[in-house]
Amino acid sequence: MAAPNSLILATAEHLSRFAPFDSMTREHLTWMAERLKLGYYSKGEIVLSPEIGDIRNFFIIKQGEIHGEQDVVRAQDDATWLELHEGECFPLGALLSRRPVNSTYRAGVDTFCYELATDHFHELLHKCPAFHDFCTRRLANLLEQSKQVIQAQYTKSSSEQQSMTSPLSAIVRREPVACAPDTPMRQVLETMNSLGIGSMVAIDTQKRPLGIFTLHDVLSRVTLPNLDLNTPLSSVMSTNPVTLPPHALAYEAALVMAKHGFRHILVEENGKLIGLLSEKDLFTLQRVGLRQLSGIIRKADDLETLKHAAEDIRQLAHNMLAQGITAEQLTQIISTLNDLLTTRIIELELEADAAAREIDFCWLALGSEGRFEQTLNTDQDNGILFSVPDGKDAEALRGVMLPFAKRINQALAACGFPLCNGEVMASNPKWCLSLAEWKETFDKWIYHGAPMDLLHSTIFFDFRPLFGNRHLAENLREWLGEVTPKNTRFLHQLAVNALRNKPPLGIVRDFVTGDGHTIDLKLNGITPFVDAARIFSLANAVSATNTLQRLREAGEKLRMSAQDIDAYCDAFLFIQLLRLRLHHEQCQAGENLTNKVDPDTLNALDSRILREAFRQARKLQTKLALDYQV
Amino acid sequence: MRMLTWLFGKKPKLTDQQNERLARWRALPAADIQQPMDASRYVVVDVETSGLNVNKDRLIAIGAIAICNGKIALADSLEIVLQQNRVSDKQNILIHGIGGTAQAEGVPPVDALLTFLEYVGSDPLIAFHVAFDQTMIGRAMREYLDFKLKHVWADLAYVAPALYPELARRNRSLDNWMEYFGITNYARHSALADAVATAELLLALGPKLQTRQATCFQGLRDMERERRRLTHPI
Hints:
Chain A is an alpha+beta fold.
């Protein structure tokens, strides 16, 4: 065939914006483009259906939208479970296994599709590894690609080796404090003291560094010689300071420090001072170890140590995120460490409170903490469950527990877990209850099902024991497992509530955005999965609280296919990962943590997977709606 | 002067081989315009010229794409720049983007036109505003091949408003109709890209053509005639 003309080139170019075509070689892409036909499907027209039988073409959407409907009999708006957009292709499974499609594919709007004959599809599959990979691994592959992108983005702040290869420009944060060389020492020392800094750089009017004076020099050059504090900085400082350019790597700076015994390196660009790197800056780059950290927490004997440990937990989470750890592992690690921290805080408070020591109680983790799904911005959700021995009064025991709980809540707040706005905390008398009282409370919610009751149940029914007598919590869970499956009205109400919150998938646009052109990853992304998993678990007496575990256990009881369950879990984890990354970025930028993401800031791959994940959420909701006749 | 040499000047000289190619094409049977659209091949054409004067301006490029059995076949496309001994002016180049060098390095016109004929074969032609494309191609055929091209054409500039009379007032140009159907163009004012956009327009008109039972080329011509009669009553 002759050299490809502008149409073939433009087609290849257009497709190369989408996975998997973006990772195919030009040669394969051109080969494919030369074999494409372009077809048109007006809105509502069926492109593929199970009745068609053998599939003749592989479709790639050029423009428009294709909807997949799983069941032709119920082909109505709600039956749409799949929405495919520009650059996406279908049907893969049917083509690969050479069988008819299971779903009906219908044009959602007027749509143009590129079509590749089945024989050519298989030929391409054979000749192009990237394409083969994509078709056979699909979602798994997309997730993997996304992970690689994350790793590439974050390498600079990840593990020790990696961080040591990051350029100094990435490490140096703020402009160094500097002054003119003729500044009197008194003023230099006062500035260093008031700003709490370890060094002062002398610069000339062109901002060229002339020398450096550090805290270490104070003893030998100022105090011992009894220096006149009117002496100018220039006669005390170390001259000809070592400088490195901003593109020098961290380990080079470490080498220079080691070689000369310096604690500070100046970063200079075009003869101007732009930064100062201290030995400490390099140390903080080093990873805080998980084992080391848990050891510190276990042995901590004051709040101060625990506060630092809490900071380290966050730092560790950031580092691990950077290494491309999965959301499941990460949230579990965060939860584990936070559990340890909370446990240690309670232990310390118990040591100081003899009255509380006398009481048989269990500290309950609620909400996301109860589900082992804490992220980097989780506020406190906790409660106390205590047993009332014969002859004792619950009210009196509560009187002992409340001040004790209050101190724990405050200590947790000091460690960076903000107090709960809704007062869902153990120090609230409403949530510091005996076993009988908890059962009575839950019972009321289940039988009344008022809006507030439903809201509470979404937080409290995710309870798990964190500290103390686990049997109390297990007893409560067992009781709940007996009560809820029987109460279909309550489950129906929960389902109605859950279904009010729809995943933000648009018909015309990719995403439906809320205020400020953002999507709330927690409310619209995570919550549909969490809610559905909770309802399915309550209905089937599944005692797990973790959403993934619930989906797996309840899914099995409900005979969902393993493939569907995996897809739900992957989708949930991806959204969770996006959320963690968002928090990580916000942290780095010193912003407040929110769950709102502007979809335009996502790369093409992530936005594609996110759409797929939302589709899974919608599919799960469809199942929920069917099961509960909503 | 050019007009005079064109009218009275010497006939163009074709090599034996070129004469043979032309003869072979002329021996092809006429297009079967009763064949249904989803079982035949149409060629959609667009041209780029040195200007809009059909009597004076020169044909610079031809872009063509085939619709085979109702689908646009990307590889069954033609994009050919005719070699110019005089480069068109700057304003003109800015429109189609075929620069001076590309114009000078184009395919010699005789070969270009023969290639185009062979590409079309006996299949019917489609364009938006046929009069312009047909005249420009026809003049070049006469000038370089000494041959009067008679071929069947259908004009979407009449077919589209015939199918959507309520939109006819607001939509006159190819751009208007493209916008209405949300058709994109990878490079507007490139002959091939415009031909592809025109082909996409034809596909988008498909459902309406079906309801009017105009599913073969003759049907397109009927739609066109209907509209012509309405807009230019005899």
